[in-house]
Amino acid sequence: xxxxxxxxxxxxxxxxxxxxxxxxxxxxxxxxxxxxxxxxxxxxxxxxxxxxxxxxxxxxxxxxxxxxxxxxxxxxxxxxxxxxxxxxxxxxxxxxxxxxxxxxxxxxxxxxxxxxxxxxxxx
Length: 123
Description:
- By secondary structure, this protein is α+β, with helices and mostly antiparallel strands.
- Helices cover about 30% and strands about 40% of the residues.
- The chain contains four helices and five strands.
- The protein has helices at about 25-30, 45-50, 60-70, 80-90, and strands spanning about 10-20, 35-45, 75, 95-105, 115-120.
- Strands 3-1-2-4-5 form a five-stranded mixed β-sheet.
- Helix 3 (about 60-70) runs antiparallel to helix 4 (about 80-90).
- The two termini are about 15 Å apart.
């Protein structure tokens, strides 16, 4: 994970639970499943801190809404693809300096709580 420099804010969105089509077997293709999404986003927050103004902050609600819409309205064969597309949505915001996205697929394996993929990007 990227180092937190002075003036940089770390936003974490934890356990965003969404339903989507994810997988390659017939049951997965026909039925939506839960996925859990965790985000870590770093951005320069000096102006937001100084001015206490949402116009100078990275709006995590806007980012999260775009993720919800994208994930729930698309189909994915692989966790890797879903994770990359979510990461691309986050990185589309110019203020983002670093982002890390982890997507969990609960009960993907017998005897395991979940399987997850994590991808990261930075400017």
